[in-house]
Design brief:
With about 400 residues, this protein is an alpha/beta fold. It folds into 2 domains: about 200 residues, 3-Layer(aba) Sandwich (Rossmann fold), CATH 3.40.50.1110; about 180 residues, no CATH class. About 35% of the residues lie in helices and about 20% in strands. It contains 10 helices and 18 strands. The strands form 5 sheets. Strands 5-4-6-7-8 form a 5-stranded parallel beta sheet, sandwiched between helices. β2 and β3 form a beta hairpin. The radius of gyration is 24 Å and the shape is globular. About 5% of the residues have low confidence. One of its GO terms (molecular function) is hydrolase activity, acting on ester bonds. This is SGNH hydrolase-type esterase domain-containing protein.
Length: about 400
């Protein structure tokens, strides 16, 4: 679905969601699992991509160190079933296998049995009060070799491949969608050169979460990870575009101007000021201008300088990450992260001693339940804003030659 809605008169027009998407409009989604799942909340890229393309509610219940059978929680902490019911959960995205893989090859059979039991326990429940929960099983990522700090990297990676295969087999046998993150992250790491996407072989960096979130979001919602692709022939004044609509192409001497209607959201820019590896080009919004006269050109959008490159670079395609639309996408991601923080303060209060411990009867302990309710209210209010349809915008792009 396209969450950016054109305003015609006083009517907002919507585009129906893709029927074959795993996630559907109106879904209440819960993420459960290990550190990978937990940190999706802190980075916000995946949820931003999903929210830009589908009308969803998402709560992250990930917990560092969780496995299918080990869920250490403070005394009297709400059960997972209670929270899933409170959130009226339709879809559970489960991220397991990384911790379990430390058991090696001999632990694969137990992992399959535990995953089968996990799926069965949730499929029997109607957390939304109407229909059985829909599950999505997500594999662990590949193991990244950091040299001396990651001994036995090859053996660890082999285990993760085996647990990924086991998860796929188990999910497929019961008709549950499966998302393989191992294979694309293995390819990503193999092409990285000196660039690293994890801090220690298994925990992703911000750039790693940006890249993996595109993979995951694209599997959950059709088109959620599709970048803008704008191509213009400066001589013929012809164009093609993905994600936007081009119109009013005009050439004056060496200058080129055109209107861009943003029919889909701009992709959140990667968390780096430097160059990202070339294999990420397909995940980034790009403008290509062919048949320009030789020289250097600056792109402006609504009068604001965005990027400068020569005619050869424009013909090869220039990444556009700092347009007004991209700044809006980045601001939207910050709002997603803030919503997640408010929910975290409600669901997983940082100081449990005030809830179940010796300070429970202190003034601060007595005040905490009311504060938790208020944090939940804040999360709900912020999500309502995130879920509001946004009006399509048309901006004026201009390529100006430095030779004039």
């Amino acid at each position: 679905m396209n969450r950016f809605l054109p305003l015609i008169g006083a009517i907002l027009l919507t585009t129906p969601a893709q029927a074959d998407s795993i996630v559907r409009d109106g879904d209440h989604i819960a993420i459960v699992g290990n550190t990978f799942a937990d940190q999706l909340r802190n980075h916000g890229y995946m949820e931003t991509l999903l929210q830009q393309h589908a009308d969803i509610s998402l709560r992250n219940l990930g917990w560092a160190g969780d496995t299918l059978t080990q869920r250490d929680r403070p005394t009297n902490f709400p059960t997972e079933e209670t929270t899933l019911t409170e959130q009226k959960t339709d879809v559970i995205i489960a991220c397991f296998g990384m911790g379990e893989a430390f058991a090696g090859e001999q632990g694969v059979a137990a992992f399959k049995n535990n995953l089968k039991a996990f799926i069965a326990s949730h499929k029997a429940k109607k957390y939304n009060g109407q229909s059985s929960a829909r599950l999505v099983i997500v594999s662990p990522i590949a193991y990244e070799d950091h040299g001396l700090t990651t001994p036995n990297a090859a053996a660890r990676d082999k285990d993760l491949a085996a647990y990924t295969a086991a998860a796929k087999e188990t999910a497929s046998a019961v008709g549950v969608p499966f998302i393989d993150l191992y294979t694309p992250t293995r390819a990503m790491m193999d092409k990285s050169g000196s660039k690293k996407y994890t801090t220690n072989g298994i925990h992703l960096t911000p750039l790693g979460y940006w890249a993996v979130s595109h993979i995951l979001a694209g599997k959950l919602v059709e088109g959620a990870a599709e970048p803008w692709g704008l191509t213009i022939d400066a001589q013929a004044k012809t164009s093609t575009a993905d994600g936007v609509k081009l119109s009013a192409i005009k050439a004056e001497k060496k200058n080129l101007s055109f209107s861009v209607t943003e029919t889909t959201a701009a992709s959140p820019p990667p968390p780096t000021n430097g160059k990202t590896p070339a294999h990420f080009a397909k995940q980034r919004d790009t403008l290509t201008i062919k048949n320009l006269s030789p020289g250097e050109y600056t792109l402006t959008i609504d009068g604001v300088d965005i990027s400068t490159a020569d005619h050869v670079e424009w013909a090869q395609g220039v990444t556009i990450d700092s347009s007004p639309a991209h700044k809006e996408a980045q601001n939207f991601r910050e709002e997603v992260k803030d919503k997640n923080l408010q929910f975290l303060y409600n669901w997983k209060a940082l100081n449990q001693v005030h809830i179940v411990g010796e300070r429970k009867r202190s003034p601060s302990g007595k005040a905490l339940p009311a504060e938790q309710i208020e944090f939940n209210n804040l999360a709900i209010q912020k999500e309502k804003i995130l879920r509001q349809p946004r009006e399509v915008k048309t901006r004026e792009w201009k390529l100006t030659s430095h030779g004039l």
